[in-house]
Specification:
Elements lengths: L2 H4 L3 H31 L4 E4 L4 H21 L10 H26 L8 E3 L16 H17 L2 H30 L1 H9 L9
Antiparallel strand pairs: 1-2
Helix pairs in contact: 2-4, 3-6, 4-5, 5-6
């Protein structure tokens, strides 16, 4: 599939792929490389309780992205063309906002962040920064970026696939993560859970 098949203009294609590349780079640096450096500097893992959730996320999102691009390339379940430019701009803004929120959350969590569910020595509840509003702001950021991508692709089918797959894979991840944190952080995390929603303030 080519850019011309997915986007109505070369300009929109270039803008999207620049943002998409920035998103990938932010993940490599913020979610992979920097946490790896922290683990090399005296970071000690108390327990790993991932239950395969990292693999579920990678596989599920890969499938969702592939299907979404296929829908857009083959004009399946497309959104109205009359508001295409507004939808594209909104989608790009959501992707950028999602990148910011996720990286803010990762930076705030610091040495406690990991792509796998693990508990570190000295692990504690973090409730500052974006964690004041929701318990899993890094996933909120991912949700914003993926929803934005669905709008940019201009297919309601793509948006639906992305949101459904996101709900499935991150729903599983959140259940695994919160169980591990309740077991290890006990009343501190239970109290924090009572004060915050999972992904969207005051809603979910």
């Amino acid at each position: 599939m080519t850019m011309a098949q997915i986007f109505p203009s070369p300009f929109e294609a270039i803008v999207f792929y620049i943002i998409y590349a920035a998103w990938i780079i932010s993940e490599i640096v913020g979610a992979v490389f920097l946490p790896w450096l922290r683990r090399r500097s005296g970071f000690q893992v108390k327990s790993i309780l991932d239950r395969g959730s990292r693999g579920v996320i990678f596989l599920g999102l890969f499938v969702a992205i592939y299907i979404s691009f296929s829908f857009a390339a083959n004009s399946v379940a497309m959104l109205p063309t009359s508001g295409r430019s507004i939808l594209f701009s909104t989608g790009i803004l959501l992707m950028l906002l999602g990148i910011f929120v996720r990286q803010w959350a990762i930076a705030t969590l610091g040495r406690f962040f990991s792509l796998s569910v693990r508990v570190a020595q000295g692990h504690k509840v973090v409730s500052n920064g974006p964690y004041r509003f929701v318990r899993h702001p890094s996933y909120t950021g991912a949700l914003l970026s993926f929803a934005g991508m669905g709008l940019v692709l201009g297919s309601w089918g793509a948006l639906l696939v992305i949101l459904l797959m996101f709900g499935l894979v991150f729903g599983y991840r959140i259940s695994v993560e919160e169980k591990a944190l309740r077991i290890n952080l006990k009343d501190d995390y239970v109290t924090y859970m009572k004060k915050t929603k999972r992904l969207i303030p005051y809603l979910i």
